[in-house]
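Researcher: Next entry in the queue.
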Amino acid sequence: MGRGRGWGAEPPQESKGPNLSEDTKDPEITILRPQGRLDLAGAPSLDTLLSKAAATHRFCVVDLSQIAFLASVGIRALLHAARDLNAKGGRLVLSGPTREVAKVLAVSGVAALLPIVPDLAEAIRLAKPDARETG
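Model: Structure for this entry, 135 residues:
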């Protein structure tokens, strides 16, 4: 891998950052839905929302189904948020990564550290404490 390149199926391109949407209707969990690229330009936006989520909620789901490219700075943002949530008894769950992003998560070791599930509904069930206890 060349210097300055992230991991993923696409070659590095100019990025203005991902589009992000956030759902915080549930007082215990926030759901983040980034779109685009989590690279040097896009990861700071996600990092900001993850920090906010970790400060205001115990549980967070990040829907990766619309992420086309994941660089090391995006991985860093996810791991920092997981650490912050774990420190207060919370949890970060990743859902729906594309095949390319899932491969990056596996190769980088993130798949061994964070729960990753195929769909958003399953991620929400896994993240919420009452859902985990009942089943």
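Model: The first strand starts at residue 19 and ends at 23.
Researcher: Noted, moving on.
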